[in-house]
Each structure stands twice: as structure tokens, then as C-alpha cells.
């Protein structure tokens, strides 16, 4: 990981914590978060595969789902667990039109998902 990515992460730590609290459901399972669930930031395109530490590259998922995906591409993960596709769609649509850190989060995430998966899951 590059130093600037680490620096960006440290600068955005408080923002990421707030961002995670904005979601009531895991983007992969579609299930609500219990009070003690560990919500994690999941990179749609992992940093090690060229993804960026930006809100447009983030989903919020349970730690267990984050670990289950591991370093798999999102396309492969969706093929293994087809229900994930509908849950991601619901998670993104739940924030439609919401401005997060100065961006229309849902619209920007849709672009990242298209790049990560290679097809538009919203059509």
C-alpha cells in the first residue's frame, strides 16, 4: 500500500466511522446490523487491485462477509453467492440521491460497480 493511501485513510477515519453508521443493513447479506455487529468498509475494487480509498469505492458489510469475500473480485463473489447482487442493489438504492462527502454516493458507486463487475447490475 502506498504511503498516500495510508495517509488518506488516517485523514478519513472519522468520516468512515460516520459513513458506516449510515447503513442499517449489510450490503452483501441484506440483513440488518445488530447493535454489536462489526460494520466494515468493503472496497468494491480492492486497493491492492487498483481501487481507491474513496467513498465511491466503499460498501458497508459485516466483518464475516468482508472476510468471506477476501481478495476475490466482486464479479467472482457474486457468481459464488448470487443473492449478493440483489442486496448490493438494495443497499445502493437506499441512499439514492444522498450526498456523502460531497458526492452523490449512489451514482458514483454505480460507476465503480460497473467497472468492477463489467456489467450494469441496475439494468
Structure report:
There is one protein chain. The protein has 123 residues and is α+β, with helices and mostly antiparallel strands. It is built from six helices and four strands, in the order ααββαααββα. The strands form two sheets. Strands 1-2 form a two-stranded antiparallel sheet. Strands 3-4 form a two-stranded antiparallel ribbon. It is globular and about 30 Å long. The N and C termini lie far apart (34 Å). The N terminus is likely disordered.
Give a quick precis of the structure.
The chain has 123 residues and is of the alpha+beta class. The protein contains 6 helices and 4 strands, in the order ααββαααββα.
What proportion of the residues form beta strands (DSSP E)? 5-15%
Radius of gyration: 14 Å
Specify the number of helices: 6
N/C terminus separation: 34 Å
Structural class: alpha+beta
What characteristics describe this protein?
alpha+beta; 46% helix; 123 residues; two-stranded antiparallel sheet
Please describe the topology of this protein.
Blueprint (H helix, E strand, L loop, with lengths): L2 H9 L1 H9 L17 E5 L14 E5 H7 L4 H7 L2 H11 L5 E2 L2 E2 H13 L6
Antiparallel strand pairs: 1-2, 3-4
Amino acid at each position: 500500500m502506498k504511503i498516500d493511501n495510508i495517509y488518506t485513510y488516517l485523514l478519513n477515519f472519522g468520516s468512515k466511522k460516520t459513513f458506516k453508521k449510515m447503513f442499517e443493513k449489510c450490503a452483501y447479506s441484506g440483513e440488518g446490523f445488530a447493535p454489536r455487529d462489526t460494520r466494515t468498509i468493503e472496497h468494491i475494487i480492492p486497493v491492492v487491485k487498483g481501487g481507491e480509498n474513496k467513498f465511491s469505492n466503499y460498501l458497508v458489510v459485516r466483518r464475516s462477509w468482508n472476510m468471506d469475500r477476501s481478495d476475490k473480485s466482486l464479479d467472482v463473489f457474486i457468481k459464488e453467492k448470487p443473492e449478493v447482487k440483489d442486496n448490493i442493489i438494495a443497499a445502493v438504492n437506499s441512499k439514492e440521491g444522498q450526498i456523502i462527502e460531497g458526492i452523490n454516493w449512489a451514482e458514483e458507486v454505480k460507476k465503480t460497480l460497473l467497472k468492477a463487475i463489467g456489467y450494469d447490475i441496475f439494468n
